[in-house]
Amino acid sequence: MTTQHTPADDAAHTAPTDAELDARFAPVFERIAAGSVEREQKRELAHEPVQWLKDAGFTALRVPRRYGGGGATLPQFFRLLTRLGEADSNLPQILRLNFGFIEGSLERDDEAARERWLTKIAAGELVGAAISERTGATHNSVTLQRAAEGWRLNGEKYYSTGSLYADWIDVAAHDGTDDVRVLVRGDARGVTRLDDWDGFGQRLTASGTTRFDQVEVPDEQFLLRYKGSEPKRNTSQPAFYQTVHLATLAGVARAVLRDGVAFAQGRTRTFGVPGRSSPRDNPLTQRVIGRLASLAYAAESVVEAVARSLERIYQDRLAGRAQTQDYFALDIEAWQAQQVVIGQALEAATLLFEVGGASATSETLRLDRHWRNARVIASHNPAIQREAAIGAFHLNGTPPNERFSLAHTSVEIEGQGADTPLAA
Fold first, then answer.
1. How far apart are alpha carbons 149 and 7 in whole angstroms?
2. What percent of the chain has pLDDT over 90?
3. Taking every annotated instance into account, which residue ranges of this chain make up the domain Acyl-CoA dehydrogenase C-terminal (predicted)?
């Protein structure tokens, strides 16, 4: 027998302390960071790091404790996600849809589904997604048809980030009448997952093709039905998904600072200075490091601010206080943050090479991965369209998700900007 989710349930289960979380996850992040360059050089998918995170409970960090999860607040979650992005910026992207699935489950008024799926995540199972398509169509081409028992799923998705690592795949399909969502096992018969992502960054996210050929879907794995053409209101998911990207970018900025300091401290010659000299004592090198530190600080501070707003909306929703205009303001805040953090991370990833000159371009260091990864993360979202939506909101009061839904008439754009998948 299940019970309804109430604000008192969350109040009864206090969040862990920051010190407890750091003691638990800092060693895992260090272990992940230690192998990040080698994985990049070999294009070695991050199966082991994902397993380490599952074993440590990171993938269930936002699952409430009553389901067996970590019970962390959103500010705690995004602070740790930034640290994970610093260790290896592929990892937050791999887990992004898992975390979005958790937040979506917490929003929907379906306690039975929460109990079924969040307990699985708390036990270490991982959810990926197959939402977006790389076609010329503007509709959902994956079909779900009734069978003698359950359903049959057929079709192909692209930009299915995390699915290759996942135990379960959250699939957007069409049943001939409506858009629907179902969960299928990643290893189910008829499911094919390909590592054919060809982006120049985020190479280990396996953000490629997932195919479904007469995949059996039992009734209990049918999640929901909705009208895909209707704008989704009173949800924090668009802002949540965007903030995952921003935390990853802030992590990249922190990694750039870390690697810039390590590179300068390990050198014994400054460019243009004959003889033995130390870059760490050079005022120009100090200035570059100072700028990198400032960019990392600013990016992380912006992410923390949005995370606090997400937590406030979360608590207001539990208490029944959240209004539509509050969700609009949250979207605008996240989109404004996007305009700033993208520039900060990209500037840092470029400025890094002023610390070391030509020697910093060595393939053995792979310092270029920071810029490549940041550029690909930044390209996942149509920032220029968001900027126009921000202006329309401030000038005319145009609701942000209503304005932005017009920009998602292309399935491919939706795929690359998957912070507003059909799930959201």
1. 38
2. 74
3. 247-381
